[in-house]
Amino acid sequence: MDKLIIEGKRRLTGRVKVSGAKNGAIAMMPACLLAAGTATLHNVPNLRDVWTMTRLMTEMGAFCELNENELFVDTRNVDSWEAPYEHVKQMRASFYVLGPLVARFGKAKVSLPGGCAWGPRPVDLHLKGLEKLGVEIDVKNGYVHAEAKNLRGGKFHFDISSVGATGNVMMAAVKARGTTQLTNAAIEPEITALARFLCKMGAKIDGIGTSTITIEGVDELKLVDESVIPDRIEAATYLIAAAMTQGSVELTNANPYHLTSVISKLEESGAKLDINPERILIEMSGRPQPVNITTAVYPGFPTDVQAQWIAYMTQAEGSSRVKDNIYTDRFKHVPEINRLGANIEIDGNTATISGPSELDGAQVMSADLRASAALVLAGLVAEGRTEVSRIYHLDRGYEDLEAKLRKLGADIARKQDKHEPETAIAS
Ligand code: UD1
């Protein structure tokens, strides 16, 4: 319903606080379903995906209250083990409730997420992993029906390292009888943080932060308070915004250790970075050098920063290539950035960006969360006025984006878009 209006060519300077990680919060919230109790999660970003998870958990009987960035969760009265299509279609990560529900109630009925704007996104690894723990899975009428009369430990190797599947299987395994060993498990910081949260609740997990996780099931878990880690994708977006506008920006509440690949690529492009454990300073003068990236699982370059990097490289002195190995079809932002005057060609899973381009403001439309961010970045350096519509995608994952950018000196405002119906595609 809303659109963003950006008057470009403003250099960003100043300080911005990074919010809590969206992908961290929406993994920790369903983990609270594992036990009956209360917990307060701190540093929770106030954004749409968190509200979606809140609504889903509330429908199951939980009480959730988000106040500023503190989320109080009470799971004592949860009496439903169903995640309906209405929620899962809005946010694929709703599928995270499957593991915890099976572990707590021995059953669950969760809608299949289906595809998304980046092409098919299967959940086979979630299901195969749960089957290894003795969960009986039946998929019919678009729903996964799961039943675990005897949840027990097992060994499972993820053919592909999957963030969601690792989280889901791990959340079930913490209450399974016996030992579970997961190999080629995801080591993304949000998964590592989830594992630590589970341990704080009483789970026994070894190998946290490595791709082999060993879990010794326990009978009981107890809800505890925890803080969400800083959002590395949001942080990367602001670092790129600063570099792109040849600005000087300090990020606070950031964790630079989660951003090593992005930071090293920014340095390669000519940005100067000064790094402290909780603070990152970036300064850029002149146009960036062209720098190729290939997305990979953590600690590689995140696919969630691919779109923003493409926008950045439109300003580079020369040609660069961006290859997405995680989501080979995730290039919906490219035709829109080209509408602003960029010269980007797609061949398979690789974008070739011929820079530098003098971008001109235009009306553009976002197709997914990070694509929206890339369009905003392009608008920041475009001459004149850029209008980014369908920003409900952006609202899923960026807290106070325009307020934060305005504070840094951007000319950006939100307006109601009377022509756009509100629909959401899960990603
Ligand atoms: C999570 C992130 C998303 C990020 C992605 C990759 C959340 C809520 N979302 O998504 O922002 O872009 O990691 O870092 O944390 N796959 C299968 N079968 C499965 C599961 C995944 O083949 O059962 C494939 C996917 O198609 C993809 C790859 O595995 O090619 C990685 O996907 P995955 O890590 O599962 O992504 P999500 O957890 O959905």
Which key phrases capture this entry?
30% helix, alpha/beta, 427 residues, binds uridine-diphosphate-N-acetylglucosamine, 4-stranded mixed sheet
Q: Report the C-alpha radius of gyration, rounded.
A: 21 Å
Low-confidence sequence ranges: none
Structural class: alpha/beta
Cofactors, ions and other ligands in the entry? uridine-diphosphate-N-acetylglucosamine
Report the β-strand fraction as a percent range.
15-25%
CA-based shape: elongated
Q: Strand arrangement, largest sheet?
A: 22-23-1-24
Can you summarize the main beta sheet? 4 strands, mixed
Tally of individual helices = 14
> For the residues shown, what is the average pLDDT?
95
- What is the end-to-end distance? 19 Å
By oligomeric state, this entry counts as single chain
Helix content: 25-40%
The overall strand count is: 24
Walk me through this protein's architecture.
- This protein is an alpha/beta fold and 427 residues long.
- It is built from 14 helices and 24 strands.
- The protein has helices spanning 22-31, 48-59, 85-88, 98-105, 124-132, 163-173, 189-200, 232-244, 260-268, 306-313, 333-339, 369-381, 392-397, 401-407; strands at 2-7, 13-17, 38-42, 63-67, 70-74, 82-83, 107-111, 136-140, 143-147, 155-157, 179-183, 204-206, 213-216, 226-227, 248-252, 272-276, 279-283, 293-294, 319-323, 344-347, 350-354, 363-365, 385-389, 411-416.
- The strands form six sheets. A four-stranded mixed β-sheet has the order 22-23-1-24, covered by helices on one side.
- A hairpin with a 2-residue loop joins β20 (344-347) and β21 (350-354).
- α8 (232-244) packs parallel to α12 (369-381).
- The longest helix is centred in the middle third of the chain and has 13 residues, at 232-244.
- The chain binds uridine-diphosphate-N-acetylglucosamine.
- The site of uridine-diphosphate-N-acetylglucosamine has 21 residues, from α1, α5 and α6.
